[in-house]
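Lab notebook, bench 4. The sequencing result for the construct came back, and we need a structural model before the next group meeting so we can plan mutations. Quick request posted to the team channel:

Model the 3D structure of this chain.
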Amino acid sequence: MLKGTPNQRLAYLPTAVVEPLAECLVAFANGDGGLIVLGLDEDGRPVETIWEEEAEGALQEAAALCRPPVPTQWQAVETPSGALIGIRVPRSTELHALADGRVLIRRGAHNRPLSGDELRKLANSKNTAEFEIEVVPGARSDDLDGEIIRNYLERRELRGGGRPASTAELLYEIGATDRAGHPTTIGILLFGKKPQMFFPQSGVVFVKFPGTEPRGADGGIGYGRRDEIGGSLARIVERAWNVIFEEMRVGATVNNLEREELLEYPRFAVREALVNAIAHRDYRIRGRRIEIRMYANRLEIISPGGLPGYMTLDNLVEEHFSRNPRLVSGLFQWGYIEELGLGIDQMIEEMVQAGHPPPEFKATSHLFTVTLHNKRERAPSPKWTRSMNERQTRALTYVREHGSITNREYQKLCPDVSAETLRLDLVDLVNRNILLKIGSKKGTHYILK
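Done. Here's the predicted structure in token form:
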């Protein structure tokens, strides 16, 4: 971690001053957790040696300023630059504040105070984390499916998780059971034989409408297909994906003389929207299931529960916050979540690469909706554009449609970007043998090589 710069989960403090340390403790505990390193400036350069006794005393005083106290682990680490103190702060299921009443959250490389609305949302999300490990009334150990657990262990091992000493111990460690082996909420949702018997709201409803409105073919009330999908959450992901895939239109395109399958919606975008809905819905909301609505011109995936924690529509790509951290971890180990925190931007990229508009996100206090539109604004981009930034992809789309592009035309495509940045974009594409530069000075233009 020391090879990086301060970020969402890493902070450098040059000295063992109590107040900045307490602010970091609270901000990390309220966020995703992380590591505080004492003895480095903000650029990661050693400042001075901090003795273990000094660090321990400062940590005790800082903890006394936190309400409630933040649990930590600390250790002295010898590096080529000298001794440093590392303080590990876990993500907390409680809401922490400083003695003066301030509630901070780690955002990027800074500790940011929360406003009233943000504070209420974070407090609500913290309660959800506790809900995950509540014992389910009436549930017994034989309500868990041994075959699903074995499948999970195999997937987990492939992910590098290793084989646990015992299955019972692993189930307790991940919060699926309590110490006595009684199933918890997360245990029933991930491994239950009949999860909907305990949590009817945990299923998914798929409905396909023939037109662009929620009506039947004759214009009255109705639909073309309706499926109710139940089971453990991993099974729901697979079954829901299969239903969507069955109903998606499939075409083809020719790219470099090779015929490629052209789905109505990109696979990754659909799967990511589906998994996110299942992983991040608020399972405390009863009476409403996740809804998948397929129309002639769009696919909507509606998840009960607004955005969790400090998440907003404006920071969806840059930030991440798990309403159900144990559930997210379970789906990650299962392989349904490829890379934590990177799905939204890749979903956007996949849609744009396929020629579609970017996904639409809509949030209310009780619902979160992702809408994928199937109207292609342009032809799908070649696969090699995936290694480029969004501006370069836009430039190449322009070249494919108009035959060439000039610096002036590129500036009109990206009016909020400096001319020097755009020039370097084009130089990069030339150096990679994708574009060919024609002419010089005012007559310069670029064509596909």
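The chain has three domains: 10-114, 115-378, 383-448.
Will bring this to the meeting.
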